[in-house]
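INFO batch 0412 | record 1 of 1 | parsing
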Amino acid sequence: MFFKIKLPCGQLVKVAMNDFVEKKRLATRFRGKTVAKSCNFSMWENPDEVFAEKFVRREILVLCERLFFENEAEITESICIECPTIIGWDATAPVENYNQDDLEHFDMPNGKSCALRVKTDRVHLRAPRTKMLTIICEFVRREGKLPRLNIVSMYPGVDIGDLEGNITEREKRVLFDFDHPGEE
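INFO prediction complete | emitting tokens
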């Protein structure tokens, strides 16, 4: 997936997502609009549909314009967009919404972070629906090439920052397993 956008200053920026990200990393986010599961989109079937939205393109344009005028070769950024309607199910929720008995310690697969997670057998505690869209991207400049905004990840829900350290302590949020049921 890729497209070009033109900044107000006239500079073109290529916005792209490689096949690995689109096919593997985002597989749990686009499982079908009617699949009520944590971290799944209900508004879109694929990344192309997300980036076809005018409000998403507008936010990407604002981000690219800001990053273009910074003089770094590579910058990793995230944006959190409040969408006009529900877009899916969040994979996190405020920790204060849950009893300690419903939570368990969870070490993230990256080996660098952990968080409290809603126990997988607590299916009555549903992943919340959300209007928030988080997009993680990397702005890259290379001599003689168009600046490029690489989409690294995206998910329904609020930005929880880098997957390092204790996410629950830092963000005051708990996680849901990706197979956890979402609110109806």
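INFO post-check: The helical segments are 19-25, 47-52, 54-68, 167-171.
INFO record closed
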